[in-house]
Records
---
Amino acid sequence: MSQAILQVRDISLSFKGVKAINALSFEVARGEICALIGPNGAGKSSLLNVLNGVYRFDAGEIVFEDQHFQRIDPLGAARRGIGRTFQNNALFKKMSVLDNILTGLSRHMRSRFIEQALGLPRARREAEAFRLRAQGILEFLELQAQRDVLVGNLSYGLQKRVELGRALIAGPSLLLLDEPMAGMNAEEKQEMARFVADVNRDLGTTVVLIEHDMGVVMGLSDHVVVLDYGRKVGDGTPAEVQANPDVIAAYLGVANE
Ligand SMILES: Nc1ncnc2c1ncn2[C@@H]1O[C@H](COP(=O)(O)OP(=O)(O)OP(=O)(O)O)[C@@H](O)[C@H]1O
């Protein structure tokens, strides 16, 4: 088993001639928290969409768990252990917290719809196992008290936590988080950072996250990759990246203006 859980090799992606990602290569070590940073339009979300199979890349390859891919599809990515949350959360507001978390398993069900509808034994056993897993996630994320609350009635910070739970229930080995702290107040950010660190440490999940708050990035990540116009302009520890003149010019300088 290689040290790197993920290798991005020379990946390019264009939209009608606009290069969103340009010959990008970097590695994510197993067990680390890797932050992707860069100005708006740098290609960060596009990269997450490439990694979980939503966008088809034009060139290069992805190596995940030592397997080489020239193409990834969303179902295949989910089944191989790549989980994902989105920038604008896509929860079901009129469903309970528990049911929202259970929707994270829809791609992993073995029993067929007809077996579920008829309540056949395999479907019943599967449903029970999934409920137990959901219960474990609720406890881990300290959401037991909100188990039956409709998601639309929760605070924004708690909704983001439910979204994390929905991604976690499938037991991903690699979790992609698209701005998990966006729009949060300082307290909510701190709380979410704690949960991301707990997921990484206690569940052993490798995390790749996009984040704009430099304080959060520097405190939480083991590794930072900096993008600008679809290219990599920095790659190293938070301290190395902070001291890199190209990064300061491309991003940190701009952010500090
Ligand atoms: N579906 C799409 N169709 C056309 N162009 C797109 C699409 N998605 C992204 N782009 C373009 O690709 C480039 C990279 O965008 P992307 O959203 O990946 O950047 P980002 O770093 O995530 O930015 P932000 O921080 O604003 O979310 C931009 O020029 C964007 O306009």
---
Amino acid sequence: MEKEPSADKRGPTGVTQNEKRLLAVLAGHLDRTAESVAEEMQTATDAVIQWAHLAEENGFATMTRTVTHTYVLNEEGEVYARAGLPERQLLNSFEGSIEMATLKQHPLSKIGIGWMRKKGWVTIRDGLISRNGDAPEGIDELALKGPLTEGEGLNALIRRGLIVDHESAVTTMRLTPAGEALVNEGLDLREETGQITHEHLLTGEWEHLNLRRYRIDRLPRRAVPGKIHPYQRLINEMRQILLEMGFTEISGELVQSAFWNFDALFQPQDHPAREMQDTFYLAEETDLPEGYERVKAMHEHGGDTTSSGWGGVWSGKKAEQCVLRTHTTGLSIQYLATHPEPPVRAFCISRVYRREAIDPTHTPEFEQLEGVVMDKEVTFSHLLGFLKEFYLKMGFADVRFRPAYFPYTEPSVEPEVYVDGLGWVEIGGAGIFRQEVTDPWGVKTPVLAWGLGVSRVAMLKLGLKDLRMLYRSDIDWIRDAPILPADTQSSTRR
Ligand SMILES: N[C@@H](Cc1ccccc1)C(=O)O
């Protein structure tokens, strides 16, 4: 291949063909407008500006953009230019003093009176307007006479909305000394070939081609294609794991009765979590489902079981109240009520609502991953094993369990995962449903149940310091968040 002239001076990246053509056109001129260059090169002005940008980056040319304004009176301005500003016309309409009420009859009084006062032309006292003196012509009135050149007078007219500002930009460009030197050394203006073809190789023509150089030291412009929100991506991944483990996905309404959200889970009616400050109550009420009497009996005295219940009188009114679901455990028990025979493996990943003060780690709405496994002979060990397995698949290798309490499970645990830099982080609740929960619906087989904070997991997996980021649609964050397919995220995935 021919050695390109002065390749050393062009830097390692070379100069594009279009840039060279542009430099040749600029040679011998001082400043040229983009338009005239475009005309000579028989191309679009935008293209010329783009090539000039490249040349500028390489130090061969400079560009200057000059914005010029042309000011013209608008329709209203034209009228005032002929007849005078409203305040002048108004002032000329009377001598000495005039009753305010009379002057208000004047069609221009609305605009004019204020301006006359502002300019100190008149004094208003006891409903009477009096001239102060001879009211000399102001800079705005001078400007109105034209020509409209920049200055305080014009600014005053612009502020009063009497002017149209026509803006036009002219881009000029010229060679730098380096650009001139490059042109003087001679530019290789032969056509460039961007792609070598089979033909070129066969005929040996490739040896004589002027091949376009790649700028391998430059990053290409960043591509920001559409993609799934990082949080949704994580939720999809969790869903996939559970589906692969043989679970059925269930769903339910955001609005639930207190009955399903609390009572069916043997949560006593005076439980603090049911208080207004923790739960969003709605004005609506709903009918109690068939079989609610058995839940009532369970609360009051333990129904037909050995449990003694909570005692007292269970109020149907309280149970009829509608709430924004505070957890998804209410969906699990509803599902079991209609599917009381084993085996059942069900899950849902859904939004729940709690009256939390908003801060970096609390939002009043967040997602939970809820699940149940009902089968003959499933035990507490299976529950721990399952949770461990799930977290492993999510990429948390260290999982441990702390004893916990929920009104609906016994025994109960809170799983924790170990996160570098944070230590052990609590990430949900789990346990075996109590007899008080399952018995009213004829469920006789053990039920493993859990509810995990999905947004918590997301925070840890996405390295967020602020939970709110998940809900904020911060476009920069969304663009920057890496796309990690499930398979590459965790080496423990089996
Ligand atoms: N509902 C509990 C989690 C949980 C679900 C199922 C069983 C035990 C605990 C919570 O919201 O924190």
